[in-house]
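Re: that backbone. Tokens:
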């Protein structure tokens, strides 16, 4: 039985014309059109990588996640699998204490005491994520959860080896190596992508002080 853990750093990927058009040719036309509708290049790149991840043969279960600079894939032969990636960053819609209140049930009282005594709020967030997940790099945390056996009647199935805890960082060549083009090249698809802004500009907090 096997396990796969892959990661691709979308944030630092600057696709060439040939790379972008090849990636677009290796996915279904409906998915290619959906990706083309993203306003920002960052979102389009993340979605393209997710679509081009090869989920392995049908006997495998797989799950994808992306946040921050990475897209990740976890796959298991014979077991259900889930994966989640988070970037250590300040909550966008609430304060750190408010975010922690929402997540209260995730940890024991002792674990919360360790998290909240870590120092400034950014360090508390880093400690929070570190309790929950393994480090992919200094700013990104990834978690993998294994579920029941995929096939009915195999409830007693257990993998012979523990699943890997580290992720293999793929290059674009690795990502596309086993993919096969499905459509003809469309030069206009690159023209549309190259004029997109990378990401929305950061907005300053204009909330009036009370």
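Recovered sequence:
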């Amino acid at each position: 039985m096997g396990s796969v853990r892959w990661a691709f750093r979308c944030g630092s990927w600057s696709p060439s014309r040939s790379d972008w058009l090849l990636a677009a040719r290796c996915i279904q036309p409906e998915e290619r059109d959906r990706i083309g509708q993203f306003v920002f290049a960052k979102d389009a790149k993340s979605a393209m990588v997710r679509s081009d991840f090869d989920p392995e043969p049908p006997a495998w279960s797989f799950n994808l996640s992306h946040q921050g600079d990475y897209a990740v894939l976890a796959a298991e032969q014979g077991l259900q699998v889930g994966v989640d990636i988070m970037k250590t960053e300040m909550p966008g819609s609430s304060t750190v204490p408010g975010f922690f209140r929402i997540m209260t049930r995730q940890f024991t009282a002792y674990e919360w005491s360790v998290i909240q005594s870590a120092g400034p709020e950014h360090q508390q967030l880093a400690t929070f994520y570190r309790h929950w997940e393994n480090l992919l790099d200094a700013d990104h945390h990834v978690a993998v959860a294994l579920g029941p056996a995929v096939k009915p009647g195999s409830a007693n199935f257990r993998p012979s080896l523990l699943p890997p805890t580290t992720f293999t960082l793929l290059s674009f060549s690795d990502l596309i190596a086993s993919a096969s083009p499905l459509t003809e090249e469309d030069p206009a698809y690159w023209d549309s992508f190259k004029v997109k802004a990378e990401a929305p500009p950061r907005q300053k907090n204009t909330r009036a002080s009370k």
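The longest helix spans residues 41-52. Residues 155-161, 204-210 have pLDDT under 50 and may be disordered.
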